Write the structure tokens for this entry.
Amino acid sequence: MEHDKDDALKLENQLCFPLYAAARKIVGAYTPYLKPLGLTYTQYILFLVLWERDGLLVSEICERLMLDSGTVTPLLKKLEAKGYLRRERSESDERCVRVVLTDEGRAMKERAGDIPAKMCSCMALSPEQAKQLYELLYMILKG
Amino acid sequence: MEHDKDDALKLENQLCFPLYAAARKIVGAYTPYLKPLGLTYTQYILFLVLWERDGLLVSEICERLMLDSGTVTPLLKKLEAKGYLRRERSESDERCVRVVLTDEGRAMKERAGDIPAKMCSCMALSPEQAKQLYELLYMILKG
DNA sequence: ACAAATTAAATTGTTTACAATTTAATTTTA
DNA sequence: TAAAATTAAATTGTAAACAATTTAATTTGT
């Protein structure tokens, strides 16, 4: 194999790998804060979406979280079983399901209010670096 | 809830989310190149490690990939079953397992040689931006 | 109007991840 | 040196992710 191809296959020359590993690390860093609330990371970001705007369709949740219904539907069912939300079939279009928070679901927001600040403080980046990273990541997501 | 806490809980103000979503997007972007080789992304990066240095211990693979044995052991068993590697218990310390590529495992490297270049070209970042991102991600991984 | 195409969720099946535990081997230490 | 502690892998159980398919409802095109 040519030298350049050989180099290109080294783990340290991949961009995908630190992205993949850093994502797992950050998601894992949420666990100590989420576990006391009985939430997983995916459930947490689902709550973020619903706290921001209640009554979204499943498809709108999927779009915002960039996840498909095969991932989101079981999550919603679990949170519904725990009493945090209700899934209501739309009357105008029976294909659609609207997701509505219960009082318990809204109350969870208060309990989670400190998490972003705690996570920020455990991240080894300055605010400028965080902003830079944020913008580069959204370039990937949009491009 | 105070305004600042409310804002901090918005999805668009999270750094974790674009990290998590971009990682999934990039991993997914490998699929069309890996599927013809019968590999998943995780299997691919495991190969990257072994192509770089053959005969590593399971623990060394786990360290390099930042994954635990619960993830890596089943991966290794699958690749062993496909004939790409052998798992050999160390004679000097029977707790350790050494992972050795077969001819088929080494041959896979030739078939994967073009993947890094193809992935690079489908990424919406300039080389400078990629370098910046790379460095920020490793700050997270090391910090 | 009505068959064909499209759409929204849900379902099925496979592959990660990871926490927690277990097993077996080795090292430490009392 | 024998018990205790540590270590390396493997195992078990749970929760994502996602491709591919299915089901049911709606929309389109003729």
